[in-house]
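Hello again, I could really use a second opinion on something today. Take your time with it, there's no hurry, and the full record follows here:

___
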Amino acid sequence: MLDCLILGDSIAVGVHLQRWECASLSKSGWNTYQWNRDYLNRDLTAKTVIISLGSNDHKGVRTKAELQRIREKVGVNSKVFWILPHGNLKADGVLS
């Protein structure tokens, strides 16, 4: 099991530059749907998971549902830190 895994968009890429000891599945410009399409089938098991997605989501992306899919795949034994986008109305309140 990995100690730390970073998932997400360009913000996650930036986090990885500061937390280089963590594995990273992140790509600049991607929305939550794109991330799930290409990475959700990977092993997301880690003690600590940092997730930054939603900044690039648009009206056609079901942000809350897509993030819930990731959270379910990460599992209940991981400590999860969310970096939520500011000002993206589609993603606001996504975890409430």
The two ends are 29 Å apart (CA to CA). The beta strands are 2-8, 23-26, 46-52, 79-82. The helical segments are 10-18, 32-39, 63-74.
